[in-house]
Amino acid sequence: MLLRWIIEVNGASGTLHSNETYQLKVDFPEHYPIEAPQNNFVLAWQVIFIHPAPSHPHIYSNGHICL
Questions:
Q1: What residue stretches are annotated with the UBC core domain (predicted)?
Q2: Model-wide pTM > 0.70
Q3: Strands in the chain per DSSP E
Q4: From 1, 34, 66, 67, the catalytic residue
């Protein structure tokens, strides 16, 4: 089972991000989606941008996404 995905995202052409490439890290718990995580502060899955994070109102400078 793949518990960590690294996804490469290219900026859309014609935008401020057109020449940028970003990486997303997605971590899934071992028994996702059958079992919820035991820690209340951890989501069932986590998605963050690996540095550098794109400049966007819903993306923090550390790469975490505000959903």
A1: 1-67
A2: no
A3: 4-10, 21-27, 46-50
A4: 66
